[in-house]
User: Which sequence fits this backbone?
């Protein structure tokens, strides 16, 4: 059974940095899709970063150049390094997971693609 659990959310000032973690269990090595999503108050859930088992990544324009997704296979942990944070980055952040034996040159960011979700971790960026 695939399970994910996020941590690392905090309150930071604009321009600051934060690293989120997501411990993943139940996935086959290299056969996965692991994305980050966020939901801001009053807004739709947004998929903004994803990584596939072959190392391919995909970023939404809203975070490209500021956020970096990575994996530590030894620790079974997905990371999200967030730099140059803005107040509009304030949201509940979720990781998700999908076991996949397909090759994705561009890992998908659509929520419908994923069935295993964490409970979220809150990020608040103040101006």
Assistant:
């Amino acid at each position: 059974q695939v399970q994910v659990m996020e941590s690392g959310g905090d309150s930071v000032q604009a321009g600051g940095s934060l690293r989120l973690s997501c411990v993943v269990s139940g996935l086959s090595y290299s056969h996965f899709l692991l994305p980050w999503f966020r939901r801001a108050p009053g807004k739709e859930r947004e998929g903004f970063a994803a990584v596939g088992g072959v190392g391919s990544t995909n970023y939404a324009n809203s975070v490209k150049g500021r956020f970096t997704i990575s994996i530590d296979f030894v620790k079974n942990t997905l990371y999200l390094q967030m730099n140059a944070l803005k107040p509009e980055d304030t949201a509940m952040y979720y990781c998700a997971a999908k076991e996949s034996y397909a090759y994705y040159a561009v890992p998908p960011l659509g929520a419908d693609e994923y069935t295993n979700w964490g409970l979220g971790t809150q990020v608040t960026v103040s101006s």
